[in-house]
Amino acid sequence: MKRIQRTLLPMLIILIGLLILFVIYNQKQTVDIDKEMPTQLHPVVQEKKEAFINKAASRNIEVVITDGLRTIQQQNELYDQGRETEGRTVTNAKGGQSYHNYGLAIDYALRSETGEVIWNIDYDGNGNGKSDWFEAASIAKELGFEWGGDWKRFKDYPHLQMTFGLSINQLQRGIRPDKERE
């Protein structure tokens, strides 16, 4: 019996220590710095968005920005789509978990020759034998955007973001990129 007690006591102490470390670590990760949520796109994202539209237009591709900054409520409504409400699932990010919520992401579509806004990734409106969608994504990446079409698990073809090296966790804690940072 004493052998069991001698073995269990150190294990219990180690377990309690690990539990304390876990609690401390999680508290550190969730400390909120008092920062207001952005009310518009980050200035660099705004500038690169305009450059994206213009550069695509120079290749006879009409890009339409369909979304930019989203509120937490708007993000939650999108998250519920296909889960709580009708429609297909369009995001895996709840409110506060998307770069859109911090003014660091945009979504795009294309305008067809007939003027219709389309999300057809095979469309070749400029007639050069290449997908306009992928040409536009390439332009965006040249400008410094990360493209959701490159993601391994959930391909989000309309999505472009600039993280400035910040994780969602850091953004949730109130850390923001510099206004002129590229």
From TrEMBL:
GO MF annotations in UniProt: peptidase activity
CDD domains: L-Ala-D-Glu_peptidase_like (cd14845)
Peptidase M15C domain: residues covered: 92-162
Segments traversing the membrane: 7-25
Leader peptide range in chain numbering: none
Swiss-Prot/TrEMBL keywords: Membrane, Transmembrane, Transmembrane helix
Superkingdom to which the source organism belongs: Bacteria
A Pfam family per the record: Peptidase_M15_4
Classification via PANTHER family: D-ALANYL-D-ALANINE CARBOXYPEPTIDASE, PEPTIDOGLYCAN L-ALANYL-D-GLUTAMATE ENDOPEPTIDASE CWLK
Record's protein name: Peptidoglycan L-alanyl-D-glutamate endopeptidase CwlK
Organism for this UniProt entry: Virgibacillus chiguensis
Taxon lineage: Bacteria, Bacillati, Bacillota, Bacilli, Bacillales
